[in-house]
């Protein structure tokens, strides 16, 4: 197998969906027994801890879309889940059947709101965290 350059790898990652990339990172972490978590920033000395935590909450830029219920139109919800993710029919059905479960994780506010609206439009109950 030819060794891929860093540019080749980045080009491959650009073509992946967020779900595919997330699954890749999990598999990479398991295979090499590492964690891809970013180091946390240290709060400046003398700054009160509670206000700093409140500021972080306000500046949150990653959201999870959690399916809490399928409602009456389960088939429509499964279709929307498949559109939002790259899951197959069985995986999407299992996700919908096993609620509450996250549909999208660590997406921006706009994508989370759009996904929540799509799911609600199909009759599902959704939380954005």
Would you kindly provide a written description of the structure presented here, covering whatever features stand out?
- With 129 residues, the protein is α+β, with helices and mostly antiparallel strands.
- It is 52% helix and 14% strand.
- It contains 6 helices and 3 strands.
- It has helices spanning 6-14, 18-32, 49-58, 74-84, 89-97, 109-121; strands at residues 63-69, 101-107, 125-128.
- Helix 4 packs across helix 5.
- The longest helix is centred in the N-terminal third of the chain and has 15 residues, at 18-32.
- The radius of gyration is 18 Å and the shape is elongated.
- It starts with 5 loop residues before the first helix and ends with a strand.
Task: Name some characteristics of this structure.
129 residues; single chain; alpha+beta; 6 helices; three-stranded antiparallel sheet
Short description:
With 129 residues, the protein is α+β, with helices and mostly antiparallel strands. It is built from six helices and three strands; from the N terminus they run αααβααβαβ. About 6% of the residues have low confidence.
Strand content: 5-15%
Work out the helicity level: 40-55%
Mean pLDDT over all positions = 79
Distance between the termini: 42 Å
Strands side by side in the biggest sheet: 2-1-3
The computed structural class is alpha+beta
Major sheet details: 3 strands, antiparallel
Write the element-wise H/E pattern from the N-terminal end onward: HHHEHHEHE
Q: Could you tell me the number of beta strands?
A: 3
Query: What form results from the Cα inertia axes?
Result: elongated
Rg computed from alpha carbons, rounded to a whole number of angstroms: 18 Å
């Amino acid at each position: 197998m030819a060794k891929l350059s860093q540019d080749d790898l980045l080009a491959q990652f650009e073509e992946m969906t967020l779900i595919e990339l997330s699954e890749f990172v999990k598999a990479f972490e398991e295979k090499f027994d590492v964690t891809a978590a970013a180091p946390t920033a240290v709060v400046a000395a003398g700054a009160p801890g509670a206000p700093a935590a409140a500021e972080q909450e306000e500046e949150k830029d990653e959201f999870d879309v959690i399916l809490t219920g399928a409602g009456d139109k389960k088939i429509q919800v499964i279709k929307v889940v498949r559109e939002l993710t790259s899951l197959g029919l069985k995986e999407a059905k299992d996700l919908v059947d096993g609620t509450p479960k996250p549909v999208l994780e660590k997406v921006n506010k706009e994508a989370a709101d759009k996904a929540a609206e799509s799911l609600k439009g199909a009759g599902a109950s959704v939380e954005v965290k």
